[in-house]
Design goal:
alpha/beta; binds pyridoxal-5'-phosphate; Aspartate Aminotransferase, domain 2; globular; 13 helices; 396 residues; Aspartate Aminotransferase, domain 1; seven-stranded mixed beta sheet
């Protein structure tokens, strides 16, 4: 039993040991066999380079001779950048966003922590459909809250009856993520509309508005020409959290924002509280250089067609072999059913063949496994026979 680190962190280390062990094993295998002989689909690290305009924009900003570019800035973000984000959201949603509704954040991870810091009392619950991005557990616990999950349906779509059964007096927020990590599914507008109607009913039942937190870092990574529906016009007590880690390929630069619906309950107070939370969590402000870059990259994104091409290469090949998998409409993951019920055992088996995939249990989706399509096509070509082999082995 450790005496130096907190008991809570010791428990968190324990809880995250599954994924950590996989990454360590991946590093060990790469060192032993060479990277080209390890089929690593474990890490969702966006692999596409930022748009070419990014480097020019940075050079323009840094070469512009401006003074004071690197000083502290307002905790909420640069006023002109908040205005830019607000205008973009107004155009996309038809709602009247202003800078007061926007807090620039250190990625979606930073933004989610800022939001949960602002909302949660000790013991409050955040309800999320499962499977989900497992850092949510830690983010809720960081602020004295508890992540509660409810299953989705067979196609990983929202199951309102399951959410309804999981709501309690302590439910402060519902946290959704579409396009979804790990499943890649997108919630259609009708389903979000039904979610909003249900949220109104559930809010009435518990006597205060349940906040909808929509985590949208994959919004622009959508396939087959679909538009990810806007949640803002459907439910007024909505907070959207997002980042440019994926759509601009800027994961290491930690830039994103939190947007509060212009008509949210206590919206003005909430906006101020978010700014304070951003400050006292120690983020202070989202990286200023990256904030300045954003308006210069309006309308730009990574080459999403390349992620779609990876899906289109991998998914039919797996289905043909006999894997079962829901067709992702966005993000860059596949979440197939494990050929044996024990997804951990299946991933261990795969690991013996130097194929690295993550058990669904790590996302509260046991019985499945996650493939992160953040790889070159050649990696898929090399890995397909291995997927076929481990399927045969699993089936005995
Ligand atoms: N939310 C989801 C669903 C994610 O998959 C990730 C990262 O993988 C994040 C949030 C955090 O991303 P970032 O903090 O880089 O914006």
């Amino acid at each position: 039993m450790t005496q130096i680190v907190s008991e809570a962190m010791a428990r968190s280390m324990e809880a995250s040991s599954l994924i950590r062990a996989m990454f360590e094993e991946g590093a060990r295998l790469r060192a032993e066999h060479g990277a080209e002989n390890v089929h690593d689909f474990s890490l969702g690290n966006p692999m596409l380079e930022p748009p070419a305009r990014f480097r020019e924009a940075v050079a323009e900003i840094l070469g512009g001779g401006g003074v004071g570019l690197h000083r502290y800035i307002p905790n909420a973000g640069l006023p002109e950048v908040r205005r830019y984000v607000a205008d973009t959201l107004s155009a996309e949603t038809g709602l009247a966003f202003g800078p007061a509704h926007i807090t620039m954040a250190c990625g979606a991870g930073g933004g989610l922590n800022t939001v949960l810091k602002a909302l949660l009392n000790p013991g409050d619950e955040v309800l999320s459909p499962a499977p989900y991005f497992v850092e949510y557990d830690f983010y809720a616990a960081n602020h004295g809250g508890k992540l509660v999950h409810a299953p989705t349906d067979a196609a990983f779509q929202l199951d309102l009856a399951a959410l309804d059964a999981a709501v309690t007096e302590r439910t402060r927020a519902v946290l959704v993520n579409s396009p979804n990590n790990p499943t890649g599914v997108v919630y259609p507008e009708a389903s979000l509309r039904a979610l909003a109607d249900w949220l109104r009913r559930a809010s009435e039942r518990i006597g205060r508005p349940i906040i909808l937190i929509s985590d949208e870092p994959y919004r622009r990574i959508a396939f087959d020409g679909i538009q990810v529906p806007q949640i803002f016009p459907l439910y007024e007590h909505t907070i959207v959290v997002t980042s440019h880690s994926k759509d601009l390929g800027l994961a290491a630069e930690r830039i994103g924002y939190v947007a509060v619906h212009p008509e949210a309950a206590e919206g003005a107070l909430l906006g101020d509280v978010l700014v304070l939370a951003n400050r006292i969590l120690g983020f202070v402000n989202a990286p200023a250089l990256m904030q300045r870059v954003l308006p210069l990259l309006a309308g730009e994104s990574v080459d999403v067609a390349r992620y779609q091409a990876l899906r289109d290469k991998m998914l039919p090949a797996l289905l043909e072999m006999g894997y079962e998998c829901v067709r992702p409409q966005g993000a860059f993951y596949l979440f197939p059913r494990s050929p044996i019920p024990d997804d951990m055992a299946f991933c261990r088996l795969a690991q013996e063949e130097r194929l690295l995939i993550v058990p669904g249990a790590a996302f509260r989706g046991p019985g499945f496994f996650r493939i992160a399509l953040c790889v070159e096509e050649a990696v898929i070509d090399r890995a397909l026979p291995v997927f076929e082999r481990v399927l045969a082995q699993a089936r005995g």
